[in-house]
Design a protein that fits this description.
single chain, 207 residues, alpha+beta, Tumour Suppressor Smad4, 6-stranded antiparallel β-sheet, zinc, NAD/diacylglycerol_kinase_sf, ATP-dependent diacylglycerol kinase activity, Diacylglycerol kinase accessory domain-containing protein, zinc-finger
């Protein structure tokens, strides 16, 4: 059992995240800045783009069900289940385009968005804001059956590992987070400064 706060990745994005994690564990001194980290992500992406095979068509062995309904999967190299719209350093994987098949997602609607990634080029285009992911489904209960005969990279909120074939169920937690928001009207502050009271002297006390 694990707790997912923001997103769960299966396939390509988790594979890159796993490579980054292992490289950082081996040489932590090489990842002292954000620029170095982004540079390694870029180098890893280029290397995987040149590599043949990999996770291509891995979704043929994946069964995805959302709210009890099976979702037909196109040819993909990655699947991401999101609880928020910001993904991978601020990219909008869901996109801004209107689609009558789906509701406009918000962070408080209790729904999860399921999005697909077709490859490393598509991933780079999403990061650049040129394209969005492949919208697959929305729902509150996601079930994934991995029928692959090999372990597949997965990641939860940036924590990656290799997952052997299994069933994965993602459900809404009963716990609710308290969110802060700005007030539209200004709050009038009470005067909290101490006041000093000087009583007037009685006639008997006058000299």
């Amino acid at each position: 059992m694990f707790v997912m706060n923001n997103y769960f990745g299966l396939g390509l994005d988790a594979d890159i995240c796993l490579d980054f994690h292992m490289a950082r564990e081996e040489n932590p001194n090489k990842f002292n800045s954000r620029i170095q980290a982004k540079g390694y992500y870029l180098k890893t992406g280029l290397r995987k783009m040149m590599k043949k095979g990999g996770l291509k068509d891995f979704t043929r062995d994946i069964v995805l069900e959302v709210d009890g309904k099976r979702v037909d999967l196109p040819s993909l190299e990655g699947i991401v289940i999101m609880n928020i719209l910001s993904w991978a350093s601020g990219a909008n994987l869901w996109g801004h385009e209107k689609d009558d098949k789906f509701n406009r997602p918000t962070h408080y609607d209790g729904m999860l968005e399921v999005v697909g990634v077709t490859g490393i080029v598509h991933l780079g285009q999403i990061q650049s804001g040129i394209r969005s992911g492949v919208r697959l489904a929305q729902g509150g209960h996601v079930h994934i059956r991995m029928n692959n005969d090999y372990p597949v990279p997965v990641q939860v909120d940036g924590e990656p590992w290799l997952q052997p074939p299994c069933d994965i169920t993602i459900i809404r937690s009963a716990l609710k987070a308290t969110m802060l928001r700005k007030r539209k009207s200004k709050i009038k502050r009470r005067n909290t400064e101490p006041s000093v009271y000087f009583p007037e002297p009685d006639d008997d006390s006058k000299c």
